[in-house]
Amino acid sequence: MKTLLVYGTRYGATAGTSEEIAKVLSAEKFDVKVVNVKEEKISDISPYELIIVGTGIQMARWVGEVEDFLKKHQKELAQKKVALFVSTMKTVSEREGKLEDLAKAKKLELDDKLGKYDFNFLRIGFFGGVMNFNKMNIITRKAFGSMRTRLEKDGFKESSPGIYELRDWEEIRGWAKELANSAKL
After folding, report:
1. Longest CA–CA separation in the chain, Å
2. Does residue 17 sit in the same domain as residue 61?
């Protein structure tokens, strides 16, 4: 199945997640093209049967180019098989048992956004991302100042200086396998 996976990322988590999803789908015999919408504009989605859209989240906001892509192709996407995922800090709330915070974040970062689009999604993914303090601007770094202590308290370790891995790779691979099965129907 010819598949287009478009993503927008701020700190690289969504890029890595996209590559992993593409790897799983390729193993399931999908022909996957992965595109960073910040670097390459997509003008024609007609050759693709399945479109997967991924975005990073910062301060409850999607990457602007991802929203632009969805708006631009909204009519065509209504005729396609579409999946969407977001890279968030959800794993922090999960580890802390803050289910109410998790539900609020999911509503704000995902559910409210999806209501703007007039098409159905085969699968929706709500994944952990990466906290990369090295790539944050000074304002964002200041807003997340106490986050390092919180991440370490929750058992997240720096994968390299200033970078905390929040992704659950098994969850992401499982989602991609379920997507493959849904898309084949």
Report:
1. 48
2. yes
Residues 6+ apart with CB under 8 A from 84: 52, 53, 54, 55, 114, 121, 123, 124, 125
Let me know: does 80 contact 51? Beta carbons within 8 Å: yes
pLDDT of residue 119: 81
How many Cα atoms occupy the beta-carbon half-sphere of 131 within 13 Å? Answer: 24
Chain position carrying tokens 């050759």: 47
Q: Same structural domain for residues 28 and 102?
A: yes
List the CATH number of the domain containing 40: 3.40.50.360
Which residues of the chain fall short of a pLDDT of 70?
Answer: none
What pLDDT sits at residue 42?
94
The sign of the torsion formed by the CA atoms of 174, 177, 181, 183 equals positive
Neighbours of 25 (CB within 10 A): 23
